[in-house]
Amino acid sequence: MGYPRASGIEMWALQFTLLCLIERPNRTEKAIKEKLIMSFLKNLFSKTKVVQSFNSEMMIETAIKWTVDFMTTAPKLSRATYNQDEVYMFCAWVVLDYGMSFGYLDEKASVEGFFLSIFKAVRNTGKYQQSEMEQFTFRVGQYRSEMTDFLKCDYPKTKMFFPETLFARFTNIAHDNFPSSREMEVNLFEFTDFFGEFWNKINRELMAKFPRKK
Questions:
Q1: Which residues, in sequence order, are bridge partners of residue 81?
Q2: How many CA atoms lie within 13 A of 99 on its CB side?
Q3: Three-state SS for 38?
Q4: Looking at residue 152, what is its pLDDT?
């Protein structure tokens, strides 16, 4: 199976470029979302050679499949549960970035439904002052940073890095029933072992179905 390491899986996740949002004119919510989506995609595809298209249906189905896999196979945690919407957003980012990085997604692709599913997941996690796109973009920054360190650390050989930010994102812990220090340590170790295998699994699936173009 193996674990993620810089020498094993090419770090295509690092190619993801964050969209810098600017002040927008006063428009309807639908028009604003459509403009944000198109701006987001235009920024990404400016560096991409397109060979084939993903679409909303395929991307949503893939992200849902991975989310269900995660929720049903992840280790049971002590006094903590997994947040399905957060897991979905991470899975959505993985398929989005792969499609962009390896030419399976173009600027004309029909992806509005895919982004609306992400916005729904954002809303399900709470109320924010930022827009749904800003919240998703903020999360992408955390995913990117966390995966950079995770891939560089050569886990589990070194065990010098644990994805604590992703763990915090993916889990719900009640303030009045917080795990003990020992329970939290075990939770983090088990989550990290599982997450390494999960990352490799979904990447292998993408590479098998959609080979990287040279």
A1: 172
A2: 24
A3: helix
A4: 78
DSSP secondary structure of 161-195: ---HHHHHHHEE--GGGPPPHHHHHHHHHHHHHHH
Residues of the chain with pLDDT under 70: 1-52, 106-108, 154-161, 213-214
Percent of residues in the chain assigned helix, strand, coil, to nearest 5: 60, 0, 35
The sign of the dihedral angle between the CA atoms of 2, 210, 114, 144 is: positive
Residues near 81 by Cβ (< 8 Å), separated by ≥ 6?
A: 171, 172
Q: CA 156 to CA 84: how far, in whole Å?
A: 26
Q: Output DSSP code: residue 12.
A: G
Nearest to 13 by CA among 199, 111, 148: 148
Widest pairwise Cα distance in the chain: 53
pLDDT for the residue 154: 63
Phi first, then psi: give them for residue 203, nearest 5 degrees: -70, -40
Task: Say how far apart CA 169 and CA 90 lie, in whole Å.
Answer: 10
- In angstroms, the CA 214 to CA 103 distance is 10
pLDDT of residue 118: 96
